[in-house]
Amino acid sequence: MSNVLVVYWTATGNTQAMAVKVAEGANADLKEISEIAPEDALKYEKIAFGCPAMGDTFEEAEEFLEWYLQVEPGLEGKKIAIFGSFGWGSGEWMEDWSERVSQTTSILFEQPLMANEAPSSDDEEACVAFGQRFAKF
C-alpha cells in the first residue's frame, strides 16, 4: 500500500482521466469512491480527491458528496489535494471546496488542479506534475 491515495468520482470520464495521471505522477493507489470505504481511505497519509463540477458546485455530485462527508471528519492532520474537471463557469466550486478544506485541520496542497472538459495533453502533463509534487509534499 502506498502512503498516497488518489480517490475520485466521475460523471463523464474527464475527472477519471485526470485521476489516472495524478496517480501516475504520485505513484499512488488509485480508487473510484465505490472501490474504497471511507475508513480505508483514511488509512493513507496523503489523499488527492477528484470530483467534477456539476454546475457551479461539486455538491451537486451527490454520490461524491455523501462519500466525502463520511471522510471529512477524519482528515485531521492529513495532507490533501483536490482536483477536477468542469464544463462551464470558471471552476468556482473549487474555490468553495478549498475553503471547506481550509476550515479543517488538514493541510491543503497548492491550488486545486482543474481542467475544462476532457483534459488536453497539456492538462495531462499538468496532472502528472501535480501528482509528483504532491507525493513530495
Rg is: 13 Å
Instruction: Output the number of helix runs.
Output: 5
Poorly predicted tracts of residues: none
Distance between the termini: 18 Å
What's the domain count?
Answer: 1
What's the total number of strands?
Answer: 6
Could you say which overall geometry the principal axes of the C-alpha atoms support? globular
CATH first level: Alpha Beta
Largest sheet: 6 strands, parallel
Structural class: alpha/beta
Explain the overall architecture.
- Residues 4-135 form the Flavodoxin-like domain.
- InterPro entries: Flavodoxin/NO_synth, Flavodoxin_CS, Flavoprotein-like_sf.
- It comes from Paracholeplasma vituli.
- The structure is a single chain.
- With 137 residues, the protein is an alpha/beta fold.
- Strands 1, 2, 3, 4, 5 and 6 form a six-stranded parallel beta sheet that branches.
- The two termini are 18 Å apart.
- The chain is globular, with a radius of gyration of 13 Å.
- The chain is built from five helices and six strands.
- The chain has one domain (4-136): Rossmann fold (3-Layer(aba) Sandwich).
- The longest helix has 16 residues, at 121-136.
